[in-house]
Specification:
- This protein has 5 helices and 8 strands.
- It is of the alpha+beta class and 153 residues long.
- The protein has a single domain (5-128), classed as 3-Layer(aba) Sandwich (Chemotaxis protein chec).
- A 6-stranded antiparallel β-sheet has the order 1-7-8-4-3-5. A two-stranded antiparallel ribbon has the order 2-6.
């Protein structure tokens, strides 16, 4: 680990955790502490964002993860991504078109979001969609555990 990497938990541990966040009227949200990439060039601190295929969430890729993507895939992926710079206050600003796409399923949730770490990326969900996803994940987990225990009986 280099000195530069020590202040960036994303490079050390990947993207992890769950954080409820509020989005302000300009579309800004706080990046979880420890994932601000403090030692990076200030103009390069940030994430590449893309609307997930299911239109329920946004994918946020740290630059260190994009470096791992094979060039053949990266060539098709890069035009679809938007760079979100982390400002001096530790915030990113979600572009209006991505906010609209994220909120169209539930406009009442406009400011209540959840950032979820998924190992190689973060996801941004509306609070309502995340609650539904948590329930689905719990059911899938319970089913998988049940299958495992039945196989060993």
């Amino acid at each position: 680990m280099t000195r530069k990497d020590r202040g960036d938990l994303t490079k050390i541990f990947g993207c992890y955790g769950i954080w409820p966040v509020l989005m302000d009227d300009k579309g800004r949200i706080l990046v979880p502490l420890g994932h601000h990439q403090p030692d990076s060039d200030p103009k390069a601190r940030g994430f590449m964002v893309h609307l997930a295929p299911d239109n329920k969430r946004l994918f946020l890729f740290p630059p260190s993860e994009l470096e791992k993507i094979p060039e053949t895939i990266k060539a098709d992926l890069m035009p679809l991504l938007t760079f979100l710079r982390i400002d001096n206050a530790g915030r990113i600003c979600i572009p209006i078109e991505l906010r609209k796409a994220l909120m169209e399923r539930d406009p009442a949730q406009e400011n209540n979001l959840v950032i979820v770490g998924r190992s190689n990326r973060f996801e941004i969900w509306t609070a309502k969609e995340w609650e539904s996803e948590k329930t689905n994940q719990a059911e899938r987990f319970e089913s998988a555990i049940s299958e495992l225990t039945n196989e060993h009986d």
